[in-house]
Amino acid sequence: MAQEALRSPPPRSHPHLDALGTYWDLVYQVLERAGSVPHAAVEGLAGSARTAGLDVVAVDGSFGITDPEQGFDLHASTLLAARERAVASGIAAGQQIDDLVGDLRAAKIGGYEWVSLPFFLNLILRKPVAA
Known about the structure:
Elements lengths: L1 E4 L7 E2 L3 H16 L5 H5 L1 H7 L3 E12 L1 H21 L5 H13 L7 E13 L5
Antiparallel strand pairs: 1-4, 2-4, 3-4
């Protein structure tokens, strides 16, 4: 089984919070700059698996919903973990990240009903049976 986070759509909340999209885009930029798999490779993972000789048994997607206090704190903590690399690579200024973390943490008590985790592409792959 393979499960990879999609760049788009970003995590969501109800009501909508623009800071989630900004945060997710920034984190993805840091990951790509650090050499992780580009988002196009994730979206084309089923085709890549077939090219590699694997059978694609199933492809679907999923996301989790959590309460705002936990969810916004998780997203803020993820952003803080990427802060040093984001600043060092010139993706964002430290103050920009700090402000965004503040927005995410403030949302914990902002009357939100729910916040999502990232959206995932899920694949079940199998090595073909030898003839």
